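Hi, here's the filled form for the chain we discussed.

Project: internal
Contact: R.S.
Residues: 81
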Amino acid sequence: MRLHKQDDVAAACRETARGCKWSLYEEIGSGRMIDAASYAFELLTAFPEERGRLRFYQERYRANLAQDLYLENLDVHSMDW
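And the returned structure, exactly as it came back:
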């Protein structure tokens, strides 16, 4: 029973993140904080339909992301979605 409740919470969190995905993309592009941009990027990897846009942001805003998220270290197209 507890697992079911955790699944419900996880699904609710995913839908909340989906509802603010443009804010997450804005954070990546802003250049304010590498940690915040990297967390936003990682949250967006939960959505397979964002693969193409994430790849663009990964290339365009490389300097705003942690090195482990650079294209040569993480290919969003080859992720196990």
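Let me know if anything looks off before we file it.
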